[in-house]
Amino acid sequence: xxxxxxxxxxxxxxxxxxxxxxxxxxxxxxxxxxxxxxxxxxxxxxxxxxxxxxxxxxxxxxxxxxxxxxxxxxxxxxxxxxxxxxxxxxxxxxxxxxxxxxxxxxxxxxxxxxxxxxxxxxxxxxxxxxxxxxxxxxxxxxxxxxxxxxxxxxxxxxxxxxxxxxxxxxxxxxxxxxxxxxxxxxxxxxxxxxxxxxxxxxxxxxxxxxxxxxxxxxxxxxxxxxxxxxxxxxxxxxxxxxxxxxxxxxxxxxxx
Length: 256
Description:
Elements: H1 4-7, H2 10-17, H3 20-37, E1 44-49, E2 64-69, E3 81-82, E4 95-101, H4 110-120, E5 121-132, H5 137-144, H6 160-169, E6 172-180, H7 191-201, E7 211-218, E8 229-233, H8 235-238, E9 242-246
Parallel strand pairs: 1-2, 1-4, 2-3, 4-5
Antiparallel strand pairs: 5-7, 6-7, 8-9
Protein backbone atom coordinates (compact mmCIF):
# COMPACT_ATOMS: atom_id res chain seq x y z
CA UNK A 1 0.00 0.00 0.00
CA UNK A 2 1.45 3.35 -1.08
CA UNK A 3 0.56 5.47 1.93
CA UNK A 4 1.57 8.97 2.92
CA UNK A 5 3.85 7.68 5.65
CA UNK A 6 5.78 5.40 3.32
CA UNK A 7 6.04 8.04 0.56
CA UNK A 8 7.62 10.75 2.72
CA UNK A 9 11.36 10.21 2.83
CA UNK A 10 13.93 12.12 4.93
CA UNK A 11 15.43 13.66 1.80
CA UNK A 12 12.00 14.97 0.67
CA UNK A 13 11.43 16.47 4.10
CA UNK A 14 14.91 18.02 4.17
CA UNK A 15 14.45 19.66 0.75
CA UNK A 16 11.15 21.16 1.88
CA UNK A 17 12.70 22.59 5.05
CA UNK A 18 15.22 24.56 3.01
CA UNK A 19 12.59 26.45 1.02
CA UNK A 20 11.84 30.09 1.96
CA UNK A 21 8.09 29.40 1.99
CA UNK A 22 8.57 26.63 4.57
CA UNK A 23 10.65 28.89 6.80
CA UNK A 24 7.91 31.50 6.52
CA UNK A 25 5.30 28.97 7.63
CA UNK A 26 7.42 27.89 10.60
CA UNK A 27 7.97 31.51 11.65
CA UNK A 28 4.23 32.22 11.53
CA UNK A 29 3.33 29.17 13.59
CA UNK A 30 6.19 29.63 16.05
CA UNK A 31 4.67 32.86 17.32
CA UNK A 32 1.40 31.16 18.27
CA UNK A 33 3.14 28.12 19.77
CA UNK A 34 5.50 30.33 21.78
CA UNK A 35 2.57 32.23 23.27
CA UNK A 36 0.86 29.02 24.35
CA UNK A 37 3.80 27.08 25.77
CA UNK A 38 4.87 30.13 27.77
CA UNK A 39 1.51 30.07 29.60
CA UNK A 40 1.35 26.40 30.51
CA UNK A 41 2.83 24.69 33.56
CA UNK A 42 3.57 21.14 34.60
CA UNK A 43 6.16 18.41 34.41
CA UNK A 44 6.60 17.16 30.84
CA UNK A 45 6.06 18.64 27.38
CA UNK A 46 6.44 16.48 24.27
CA UNK A 47 7.01 18.08 20.87
CA UNK A 48 6.89 16.26 17.57
CA UNK A 49 6.60 18.11 14.30
CA UNK A 50 8.14 19.60 11.19
CA UNK A 51 10.27 22.34 12.78
CA UNK A 52 13.91 21.24 12.74
CA UNK A 53 14.76 23.80 15.43
CA UNK A 54 11.69 24.57 17.57
CA UNK A 55 13.19 27.46 19.49
CA UNK A 56 9.80 28.39 20.92
CA UNK A 57 10.30 25.50 23.35
CA UNK A 58 12.85 27.67 25.14
CA UNK A 59 9.90 29.71 26.41
CA UNK A 60 8.28 26.67 27.98
CA UNK A 61 7.66 26.82 31.73
CA UNK A 62 7.34 23.08 32.09
CA UNK A 63 10.07 21.26 33.97
CA UNK A 64 11.03 19.04 31.03
CA UNK A 65 10.47 19.80 27.34
CA UNK A 66 11.72 17.27 24.83
CA UNK A 67 11.40 16.23 21.19
CA UNK A 68 10.57 12.88 19.62
CA UNK A 69 11.31 12.22 15.96
CA UNK A 70 9.27 10.30 13.41
CA UNK A 71 10.68 7.89 10.77
CA UNK A 72 10.58 10.48 7.95
CA UNK A 73 12.81 12.77 10.04
CA UNK A 74 15.58 10.26 10.57
CA UNK A 75 18.99 11.86 10.17
CA UNK A 76 17.50 15.34 9.64
CA UNK A 77 16.53 16.52 13.15
CA UNK A 78 18.11 16.05 16.55
CA UNK A 79 15.62 14.30 18.82
CA UNK A 80 15.72 12.55 22.19
CA UNK A 81 14.20 9.46 20.60
CA UNK A 82 12.14 8.12 17.71
CA UNK A 83 8.61 6.76 17.72
CA UNK A 84 5.99 5.52 15.31
CA UNK A 85 2.72 7.30 14.58
CA UNK A 86 0.50 4.72 16.23
CA UNK A 87 2.79 3.43 19.00
CA UNK A 88 4.19 5.92 21.50
CA UNK A 89 6.66 4.69 24.15
CA UNK A 90 4.98 6.56 27.01
CA UNK A 91 2.77 5.45 29.86
CA UNK A 92 -0.87 6.44 30.13
CA UNK A 93 -1.45 9.97 31.47
CA UNK A 94 2.28 10.70 31.76
CA UNK A 95 2.54 13.99 29.81
CA UNK A 96 1.23 17.43 30.71
CA UNK A 97 1.42 18.95 27.21
CA UNK A 98 1.72 17.41 23.74
CA UNK A 99 2.46 19.59 20.70
CA UNK A 100 1.87 18.12 17.24
CA UNK A 101 3.06 20.49 14.51
CA UNK A 102 1.82 19.04 11.19
CA UNK A 103 2.60 15.53 12.43
CA UNK A 104 -0.97 14.47 11.66
CA UNK A 105 -0.58 15.82 8.12
CA UNK A 106 2.44 13.59 7.59
CA UNK A 107 0.78 10.46 8.94
CA UNK A 108 -1.29 7.85 7.10
CA UNK A 109 -2.80 6.95 10.49
CA UNK A 110 -3.74 10.37 11.95
CA UNK A 111 -6.63 9.00 14.01
CA UNK A 112 -4.35 6.48 15.70
CA UNK A 113 -1.80 9.19 16.38
CA UNK A 114 -4.44 11.35 18.06
CA UNK A 115 -5.51 8.34 20.15
CA UNK A 116 -1.91 7.87 21.32
CA UNK A 117 -1.62 11.55 22.17
CA UNK A 118 -4.92 11.43 24.08
CA UNK A 119 -3.80 8.33 25.95
CA UNK A 120 -0.56 9.91 27.16
CA UNK A 121 -1.96 13.34 28.16
CA UNK A 122 -2.94 13.50 31.81
CA UNK A 123 -6.32 14.87 32.95
CA UNK A 124 -6.39 18.68 32.63
CA UNK A 125 -3.37 18.44 30.31
CA UNK A 126 -3.16 20.17 26.94
CA UNK A 127 -2.95 19.00 23.36
CA UNK A 128 -1.84 21.58 20.77
CA UNK A 129 -2.26 20.59 17.13
CA UNK A 130 -1.05 22.57 14.12
CA UNK A 131 -2.52 21.29 10.87
CA UNK A 132 -3.15 22.17 7.24
CA UNK A 133 -6.68 23.14 6.25
CA UNK A 134 -7.85 20.93 3.35
CA UNK A 135 -10.82 23.26 2.77
CA UNK A 136 -8.74 26.22 1.64
CA UNK A 137 -7.29 27.42 -1.63
CA UNK A 138 -4.12 25.51 -0.70
CA UNK A 139 -6.24 22.38 -0.25
CA UNK A 140 -7.68 22.86 -3.73
CA UNK A 141 -4.23 23.06 -5.27
CA UNK A 142 -3.15 20.01 -3.29
CA UNK A 143 -6.07 18.06 -4.74
CA UNK A 144 -4.94 19.03 -8.24
CA UNK A 145 -1.44 17.82 -7.38
CA UNK A 146 -2.50 14.43 -6.06
CA UNK A 147 0.39 12.62 -7.72
CA UNK A 148 3.09 15.01 -6.57
CA UNK A 149 6.10 13.49 -4.79
CA UNK A 150 7.04 16.72 -2.99
CA UNK A 151 5.94 18.43 0.22
CA UNK A 152 3.62 20.06 1.17
CA UNK A 153 1.43 18.41 -1.49
CA UNK A 154 2.43 14.96 -0.28
CA UNK A 155 0.36 15.17 2.90
CA UNK A 156 -2.84 13.84 4.45
CA UNK A 157 -4.39 16.92 6.11
CA UNK A 158 -7.07 16.56 8.79
CA UNK A 159 -9.73 19.28 8.81
CA UNK A 160 -10.49 21.25 11.95
CA UNK A 161 -14.07 19.91 12.12
CA UNK A 162 -12.93 16.31 11.80
CA UNK A 163 -10.30 16.81 14.48
CA UNK A 164 -12.90 18.38 16.78
CA UNK A 165 -15.08 15.26 16.44
CA UNK A 166 -12.19 12.98 17.30
CA UNK A 167 -11.21 15.03 20.34
CA UNK A 168 -14.78 15.16 21.64
CA UNK A 169 -14.91 11.37 21.66
CA UNK A 170 -11.54 11.28 23.45
CA UNK A 171 -12.77 13.54 26.30
CA UNK A 172 -11.06 16.75 25.16
CA UNK A 173 -12.55 20.23 25.19
CA UNK A 174 -11.42 22.50 22.36
CA UNK A 175 -10.46 25.84 23.90
CA UNK A 176 -9.22 27.82 20.92
CA UNK A 177 -8.68 27.52 17.16
CA UNK A 178 -6.58 30.15 15.41
CA UNK A 179 -6.40 30.35 11.59
CA UNK A 180 -2.92 31.08 10.21
CA UNK A 181 -1.01 31.21 6.90
CA UNK A 182 -3.71 32.88 4.82
CA UNK A 183 -1.53 33.62 1.77
CA UNK A 184 1.19 31.01 2.27
CA UNK A 185 2.82 29.51 0.21
CA UNK A 186 2.26 32.31 -2.31
CA UNK A 187 4.87 35.06 -2.45
CA UNK A 188 3.21 38.47 -2.83
CA UNK A 189 5.67 41.11 -4.09
CA UNK A 190 8.46 39.65 -1.95
CA UNK A 191 8.99 37.10 0.82
CA UNK A 192 9.27 39.83 3.47
CA UNK A 193 6.01 41.47 2.34
CA UNK A 194 4.28 38.08 2.28
CA UNK A 195 5.36 37.45 5.88
CA UNK A 196 3.95 40.79 7.00
CA UNK A 197 0.64 40.14 5.26
CA UNK A 198 0.31 36.72 6.87
CA UNK A 199 1.16 38.16 10.29
CA UNK A 200 -1.56 40.79 9.91
CA UNK A 201 -4.16 38.24 8.79
CA UNK A 202 -3.25 35.65 11.43
CA UNK A 203 -6.18 34.91 13.72
CA UNK A 204 -8.80 36.40 11.41
CA UNK A 205 -11.71 34.29 10.16
CA UNK A 206 -13.04 36.41 7.32
CA UNK A 207 -10.65 34.79 4.84
CA UNK A 208 -10.06 31.00 4.71
CA UNK A 209 -6.63 30.17 6.12
CA UNK A 210 -4.37 27.40 4.90
CA UNK A 211 -3.49 26.19 8.40
CA UNK A 212 -4.81 26.28 11.96
CA UNK A 213 -3.55 26.06 15.54
CA UNK A 214 -5.97 24.11 17.74
CA UNK A 215 -5.65 23.98 21.53
CA UNK A 216 -7.62 21.38 23.50
CA UNK A 217 -7.71 20.39 27.16
CA UNK A 218 -8.36 16.91 28.49
CA UNK A 219 -11.42 16.85 30.73
CA UNK A 220 -11.76 14.83 33.91
CA UNK A 221 -14.32 12.03 33.63
CA UNK A 222 -17.12 12.30 36.17
CA UNK A 223 -16.44 15.93 37.08
CA UNK A 224 -18.54 17.74 34.50
CA UNK A 225 -20.05 20.87 36.09
CA UNK A 226 -23.81 20.69 36.65
CA UNK A 227 -25.73 23.91 37.13
CA UNK A 228 -27.84 23.90 40.35
CA UNK A 229 -31.58 23.76 39.69
CA UNK A 230 -34.53 24.65 41.92
CA UNK A 231 -37.77 22.72 41.58
CA UNK A 232 -41.22 23.99 42.66
CA UNK A 233 -43.84 21.37 43.52
CA UNK A 234 -47.22 22.24 41.95
CA UNK A 235 -49.75 23.75 44.36
CA UNK A 236 -52.73 22.07 42.74
CA UNK A 237 -51.54 18.59 43.65
CA UNK A 238 -50.84 19.21 47.32
CA UNK A 239 -52.98 22.19 48.25
CA UNK A 240 -49.96 24.38 49.06
CA UNK A 241 -46.76 25.57 47.53
CA UNK A 242 -43.85 23.51 48.84
CA UNK A 243 -40.52 24.46 47.31
CA UNK A 244 -37.91 21.74 47.20
CA UNK A 245 -34.35 22.78 46.44
CA UNK A 246 -32.17 20.34 44.63
CA UNK A 247 -28.65 21.52 44.09
CA UNK A 248 -25.81 19.49 42.68
CA UNK A 249 -22.43 21.04 43.17
CA UNK A 250 -20.13 20.53 40.18
CA UNK A 251 -16.44 20.85 40.12
CA UNK A 252 -15.24 23.28 37.49
CA UNK A 253 -11.67 23.30 36.27
CA UNK A 254 -10.39 26.62 35.05
CA UNK A 255 -8.39 27.10 31.87
CA UNK A 256 -4.88 28.37 31.67
